[in-house]
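Our consortium's second objective concerns turning raw sequence data into structural hypotheses that experimental partners can test. To show how far this objective has progressed, the report includes one record in full. It was chosen at random from the queue rather than selected for favorable results. The single chain below, 262 residues long, was entered without modification.
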Amino acid sequence: MKLTGNFQPDQCAGITGTAASVASFDKACSLHDANGCLELAARYQCGAGVARDLDKATHYEIASCDLGGGAGCGAAAMTYLMGPSPDPAKALAIANKGCAIGDGTSCSYVGMIYWQGIGVTADPARAAKIFDAECAKSDQMACANDAVLLYMGAPGVTRDLVRAKQLAESSCSADMQAGCNLLAGLLLEQGGTEDIQRAARLFDKVCEEGGGAACDNLGQMYRHGANGFVQNLDKAKEKFDRACKLENAPGCTHLGEVTSGP
């Protein structure tokens, strides 16, 4: 059973808005409040209280960043990395700006860019140093990234499953989906009955929070069964279907496989 490792959670979970709230955020932004600009960006990003407009969302993320809002820099970096029109150079520039302001999320995006070689020469060792530094500041997103990198290993980064699990536990306790997803995978590898039951609970929690890979991973557990975990193909289909709706590609493949008939 091959687990899905990387995923993006639903960025709009919990974002609500009304025309009145959008007007308030718009005024705050016009008065040079970085948080107001960021909140306005989120409403345009998610279509909450206003028509969805990704260009306007990016505009207000950058406006927040320019006003010294590190979180705005991080949000804009994510948009340039994962949005409909990726621009790695812009993502790196604005993530570096946010990191210099002191935004841990921005620093993590810098690390991710160098880890995966997005528009730059891949440098996992440099990424690990960034993650280590931010994790030491109790930035749990960085701890989660560090855990995944240590689990996978890479040129210049020695694989360390013990440390990876420690960081995954820490980041999962802070509700970081990547940390919980990795921790569940590590528990599955340990193979004990209690470990497997805990892994299933973690995958289920992250799945319900919009983590497509966790839905797929749980679906695979139901599909194949495991030590102390009962096979249930109906549950597998349900989890694969949710994974696919969350745009997790392996989940769509697995859904196709289990619905193809005998």
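The partners drew two points from this record. Confidence is low (pLDDT under 50) at residues 1-9. The CA atoms of residues 181 and 213 lie 8 Å apart. Both points have been shared with the crystallography group to help prioritize constructs.
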